Amino acid sequence: MQQQLISKFTRRVAFGLPGGQSLPEDPVAWALSQLRSVPPIDILERDGTRRADLPADMKLLSDMDEVMHAFADHQRIEKESFEKAKSLSPREYEAYRERKVGTPYWRLEHWKEVQARETTALFGGAPVFERFWHFWTNHFMVAPGNQNNDTLIGPYQRALRPLMMGNYREMLWQAVTHPSMLVYLDNNRNTGPRSKAAREKWTTDSINENLGRELLELFTISPSAGYTQQDVEGTTLILTGWRDMKPDKWHKGQRLGTYFDFDRHEPGSQTVLGKKYTAFFKPSAKLEDLVTDLANHPATARHLAHKLCVYFIDDDPPAEAVAKVEAAFINSKGDLPTVHQAVIAACWETIETTRKFASPETWFLQVLTLAGAEPPRTIPLTREVRGIKTPYLLGDLGQEIPRCPQPNGWPIRSIDWISKEMLDRRLRVLSVIGGEERRAGRSVDMRVKVTMAARRDLYPDSPALPLFKQADMFNDLRLGLVAFFASPDILWS
Amino acid sequence: MQRRTFLLKTAGLATLSFTGIPSTWANDAADTPRVLYVLLRGGMDGLTAAPPIGDRDYDQIRPTIGIQKALRLNADFGLHPALGALHRLWGEGHLAVVHSTGFGYTGRSHFEGQDVMQTGIMTPYAVNSGWVGRGMERATIDSGVAISIPMPLILRGNTRATTDFPNWMPMLRATDTDAVKKLWANEPLLAPFTDAIQLANDGMQTRGMGKEAFEDAKSMRGLARVAAAQMREDGGPRVGLIDMRNGFDTHASQGAEKGGHADRLRDLDTLVASFKEAMGERWAHSLVVTVTEFGRTAAENGTTGTDHGVGTCCFLAGGLVTESKVYADWRGLEKRALFEERDLPATIDINAVYAKVLERSLALSPTQITSGGVLDFKPHPALNGLFGLG
Predict the structure, then answer these.
(1) Which residues from chain A sit within 8 angstroms of residue B305, using beta carbons?
(2) A319: which residues sit within 8 A by CB, 6+ positions away?
């Protein structure tokens, strides 16, 4: 029993352990050891080295100058491509769009970031860290939107990784003021009605509440704190002028990336939650103060503790577990390593009586980890390249990372991932993964790993055990995969 | 077996998997109503979809994004030019538009709003069932299908509703689905799906679907056909749902006759037209209903878009509509007439509209709807006569 609980815990806070590997004797220590430093991220081989068969120029961008150049290029090329519609036949135009925009941005950009995320989760050596990173990228969701921001998302999400070693205020600040977020939630156009730019009619832009509302609702105090439309408006005005600087015609030697445009900022003071924010000499400091106050607000600690516990523990998490995480957040003033540690401890303390039904991405990574498989390798260098591509396979399962439909992120409750269609797809994808391994000549290895994982992880009364005897992994791999991965023992963790 | 053959022949969807439908449906006659709910997430701008062409303030508050080339409905209202199929339905007497309508919820949050529009309860996150799902349960209707991968909240509260979406992956074998039945026998959250999974895999699609067939199946036209292929059947689902997942949240550069908002409306128009065509004779007893979380600010914002608001419009299209008419309690677009001086007000509770839909399609009385816990609503005299009801 103890062994199955430890196995459940390894799937709860990570993706389980490969079949054949023994479970840690001290599961909490095992988990915490993975949270002490920031593992590097890249597109990895099984042995943890960078994948060798990638095009030389394919790399993950991190340097802000490079990122903003790539973003500006994407926007410019999209715009230019619309002009071509007039001079080309529909077929030529489609081919042109595909070559200029489709392949480099919609496909390769998407593919390389997803492939890095999934292979680092599998082969990077610190799956517990990756689970928490998945949580934070979901919490501070930025998804491809209507401003061609594809190139900004990966760099932004990866920039959150080192911030997991600091406190929440710093992560909140970096997330909210990152060009990726400013573009995604339209704050790059949020302009004070009494700002110089508006008064002198340099722009027709005015206020846009999108980021202001989400800063209160999603990232900090949440609606249960009872804020008003006036608070949203105050927050929005404080956010005016915060925008992205990219190398375009307005760029006059400014540093690329986040930019505070004094001329678009609403002058004077604003009030949020009853507090007046004023800055005579440095108006950008109003946002710094507001972010500090929101990060330290007790409602933020409550909101985040509850969200972490729903994500990691149970749709209806035990009140004591939430209270412990909340206390860790408040006592440490939002020190994230302390908060993560409290979540790990609460997970282990409640592991017997709580359960989660993993999101499609987490489940996919569990399957690959336990079976010793890897995500499909196909690189979509052109539209015609055949083969299964990991980002779209995740889409088939119902979670096309990072194309989240809404800013509130993917669902974190178990119940939202259960439907006939989602379950059917999980079952069918097992054959797809089995087929990929067979083509790569690794199906014997997979059979061995799944058999050993089943021996280690299934409860003695599991309904999967009799099926296993019937399946005989070496004769019917498909049935073996279904018996193991569809067993309630493994589906719930 | 006969039913499947029929589906394969008529829909041209030979490679799609279908959720099976049990053979013993009670009381399904040729004129039993069919309702397709369409979720328009993001907040549809009612003043763009059905512009109040007769309102003297409209052009003034929408100098850039106002619709100048509306398709005329009457002296007061028009339709966006991308809604050509809906306009033809108007001519046939089968389009009702309810305007300046919305939920009692005025918090302007997408996530709370999308919870409220599906639960029908004005306190966000209060329950885990939807008003359509509860209505089906109250009327003991067995059959609903969401053309979606996840099960949308609006259909929950009824274990018989199921999900279906075009899928290219090879089918499971009977050995596999039998195994799943055994594995989930004691799992209350999973066991209800095993029959449907077995039926969905009971076919010839062992090699997976080709790329073009798959792309076509996922288009608006394709999804409407998947829904209709099941709903038009005798004994088919009486409730269907298509989730247009995004695109209506037009904070910036929403466009007017052309642009982002126009593209989404064209999708909606294609969906209705394709559904009508694929329903065949059943269209005479069908209804398409739009559901969106809120409308948008009456005036355009500083970034030629609109922000989250309250009131919007609702489209009701199909043979169940007895008279083409705009139902509205219009207060005008002057600042003082607006909700909090910014949003089109919800002068008609949209739950009252949806209650009429349930009344007509599921034969539930208003008392059964309110006292049965299906949906609370404020009746409005302007809705008298909708669907020929009192």
Answers:
(1) 208
(2) none
Residue B22, chain A, CB below 8 Å: the answer is no
Q: Do B170 and A425 touch (CB under 8 A)?
A: no
Domain ranges of chain A: 2-25+360-398+419-491, 37-163, 175-295
Contact B298, B311 (CB under 8 A): no
Identify how many contiguous H helices and E strands chain A contains and give both numbers: 23, 4
Cross-chain Cβ contact B308/A408 below 8 Å = no
> In degrees to the nearest 10, what's the CA dihedral of A190, A194, A200, A204?
30
| Other C-beta atoms lying within 10 Å of the C-beta of residue B108 | 23
Contact A370, A16 (CB under 8 A): yes
* Interface size, chain A vs chain B, as Cβ–Cβ contacts under 8 Å: 159
Complex ipTM, two decimals? 0.91
- Name the DSSP letter for residue B296: B
| Domains, in order of start, for chain B | 2-19+28-170+205-388 (3.40.720.10)
The nearest CA of chain B is from the CA of A36 a distance in Å of 35
Q: Which of A428, A473, A477 to mutate to probe the B interface, most B CBs <10 Å? A: A428
The tens-digit pLDDT sequence of chain B (390 residues) is 233 333 333 333 333 333 444 433 446 788 999 999 999 999 999 999 999 999 999 999 999 899 999 999 999 999 999 999 999 999 999 999 999 999 999 988 888 899 999 999 998 877 889 999 999 989 988 788 999 888 899 998 877 788 888 888 989 999 999 999 999 999 999 998 999 899 888 865 555 667 777 878 888 999 999 999 999 998 889 999 999 876 788 777 777 888 788 989 999 999 999 999 999 999 999 999 999 999 999 999 887 789 899 999 999 999 999 999 999 999 999 999 999 999 999 999 999 999 999 999 999 999 999 998 999 999 999 999 999 997
Substitution target from A421, A438, A469, A475 for chain B, most B beta carbons within 10 A: A421
Strands B34-40 and B239-244: parallel
pTM score: 0.85
